[in-house]
Amino acid sequence: MPISIALYQPDIAGNTGTILRLGACLGIAVEIIEPAGFDLSDRNLRRAGLDYLERAALLRHLDFEAFEMARETQGRRLILFTTKAADAYTDFAFEETDILLFGRESAGVPDHVHERADARLLIPMQTGARSLNLAVSSGMAAGEALRQTLWSRPCA
């Protein structure tokens, strides 16, 4: 399975809809680790995703353990994006099957999720800035991962 974006218990339907639209446009799956802070049929989710939701590859996981079982079966690396990391995402060597994990807008991910990550990456920001919008962060990360893997291959 190619690169995917995973959202750990997302809080904001609009961000998730935007990320689903991103996934549809870039050809990458979006995995949602439930419970989400909104109904996945939420009107805001549909509004942000527009007509792209029908084209999006959405995978839902009942909880983090179900997600981990699926990931381990597939032998994929878990790459966590967090403000608590020391390594910049632009200095990391992505692989074609990586899962790019983003935490809740309100709380990030708990320690047990941090511990399961194969790598923890940071999007560098100006001093004093707390965090970027989740959809912006996932777009930056997906763009870099795809640039290094899929987009850097010669065309056939």
From TrEMBL:
Its EC number is 2.1.1.207. S-adenosyl-L-methionine binds at G103, I123, S131. Its main location: cytoplasm. It catalyses: cytidine(34) in tRNA + S-adenosyl-L-methionine = 2'-O-methylcytidine(34) in tRNA + S-adenosyl-L-homocysteine + H(+); 5-carboxymethylaminomethyluridine(34) in tRNA(Leu) + S-adenosyl-L-methionine = 5-carboxymethylaminomethyl-2'-O-methyluridine(34) in tRNA(Leu) + S-adenosyl-L-homocysteine + H(+). It comes from the Bacteria. Pfam families: SpoU_methylase (PF00588). InterPro entries: Alpha/beta_knot_MTases, SpoU_MeTrfase, TrmL, tRNA_m1G_MTases_N. Residues 3-141 form the tRNA/rRNA methyltransferase SpoU type domain. This is tRNA (cytidine(34)-2'-O)-methyltransferase. The gene is trmL.
